[in-house]
Amino acid sequence: MNIQLRYFASLREAVGRDSETLEWEPDASPSAADVIERLRARGGRWAEAFAADNPLMCAINQEMCDPGQRLKEGDELALFPPVTGG
Amino acid sequence: MNIQLRYFASLREAVGRDSETLEWEPDASPSAADVIERLRARGGRWAEAFAADNPLMCAINQEMCDPGQRLKEGDELALFPPVTGG
Amino acid sequence: MESILVTTEPFDPHAESAALHARNPAVGAVVDFIGWMRDFNEGDPVTAMTLEHYPGMTEKALQRIVAEAESRWDLLGVRIVHRVGELKPSEPIVLVAVASAHRGDAFRACEFLIDYLKTRAPFWKKETTRDGERWVQARHSDRAAEARWKEEISKDTSQD
Amino acid sequence: MESILVTTEPFDPHAESAALHARNPAVGAVVDFIGWMRDFNEGDPVTAMTLEHYPGMTEKALQRIVAEAESRWDLLGVRIVHRVGELKPSEPIVLVAVASAHRGDAFRACEFLIDYLKTRAPFWKKETTRDGERWVQARHSDRAAEARWKEEISKDTSQD
Lengths: 86, 86, 160, 160
Known about the structure:
The complex is a heterotetramer, with two copies of chain A (86 residues) and two copies of chain C (160 residues). Chain A has 86 residues and is α+β, with helices and mostly antiparallel strands.
């Protein structure tokens, strides 16, 4: 299955891209936290960007989500630092 | 002693004037409530305007006051209904 | 610019608020309260309004309220404009604009100022309906709003 | 007029608030929050700012916040305008304007909207100082401000 990933703000700069398509084993339903874990395992700038003490927010299909929320084929998962608008 | 009286809004209309000078016994220091009592004793429209169940505010020399606050020669006592600005 | 204006002329609350900010680039937050004359009150259409006040005391009362707000919160500017005399529906009656570095202080101070103005400043509204003129009655909710701040003051004091 | 606008162009918060009132003579109270870009932050002069956002999600998040406010208070109108892209000091970043018949609802809703926007809407600020660019860090006080409303919601529920 495919997951559409999007990165914003300091996280986008840290990983050096704003989006990518991530392949995952078919019939799995990984959580957002599972995806983050796999990105962290890439090492280097990825390990740094997703270090456990780096506060992070996530959204699935443009709705804020808990890290435990599960993804299905074609979902868009956005990862970003805490928001600072207003 | 002389007390300068001022009336505002519905109270001004009820008593038919916006100000007057009230003479009081020399060396007395009447409270605002004493003055109101004497005005009420005039009877007629005065008794009605100062009826006990008519909510009233007062100010001495342009500062809100309690009815128990005492007056001295030349003080300005303003009497008016609860304020409704803003 | 004096922070308080009582005026018989129509005024532009938005221009007043803009001026408050324009003088200070350290301002991060402005909260405005604008009270507009409604065309309807207590179930009746209202076609005109006259605002009476107590010249001299009005300005003193407002200055005292502003000083109290400035002592309680970190403010960078306050502007209060209150209309008196004859008004038509959809005209502004009052503006309370508060500028601060951050928003919490601006919200608190703005609401405090209008709550106190409504119960402590000598203004009286008379409105014209099809049945003639009538004086607007003081609202219990305004007294309750003012009382709330007194509770907060005593809370603040007991925590010192 | 749509109640929400996200724009790369400078906007006039006062004209936006005036428009909100002008459409409805039943409006008695308008509360505006205007967030202005400051020329100073965290001890450093700031010369420019870039606001990044998440197109699509931004509008959804703001619509959800407005719907929540409209369900909790009696409102006659809401207007939110948020700037994105490049800004200069003293330009407005955000306007939250709320119109109501009476002021209590307008104050509550306006502060709720900006508190939620600050923690739930996908905007990120990057500022330019003499040492270069830096991302603005989220403030703990903003989280605390949002949490306050959750307590109020659970209080409301338990009193039903």
